[in-house]
Amino acid sequence: DPLGAAALRGETDRSYILKDVNDEWLQTWYSSLSRGWSWRWWSAENTLTATYSLGRNDRFGLVAAGSPKVYWYAYTSQRFQLPKAWQAELIAWWRSELNDGTVRRASAGALTLAVSRPFFQDRLRVRLLANDIFHTVRADGDYSVAETDITFFNKWNSNYFRLSISVNLGQLKDNAFQNRKTGQDAINRG
Length: 190
Description:
By secondary structure, this protein is mainly β.
């Protein structure tokens, strides 16, 4: 059985227990389309996914959260070669509202920007990254257990700046593979 989780009512009206819950059944269908391309100073990787999940769990009194519907996920990574060896990168993702028939989750997304530059013939790289600029990564939604409505709204500490410096020391050895005997019979290879 698929495994989920729920906050179930404890011994009193004000006590709750976070409990793993095995769904009776859960079916998911999805389709994804990806396309990458490159053009001079610009390269991109894009993905669009449609997912439909339908589940049921009556064991603990979980109540249907409305009609299940298709949810969408979009992802893009765009890289730009700028003058003087600078590189800029934009990464964004978005997920529409999710409803599998039991739990409803609000839409979420993030936008990340980065700039980097190599120094000393690519031996040193400096990168500045701004993650989740609009602070939109969150767990937000609701579900019902018997007569209790559970609403959650969590924002994570996902928006930050990061400066990273990487150094490459030494060089890789040249491991050129040379196969001098080609065209051997498959019988004589053993």
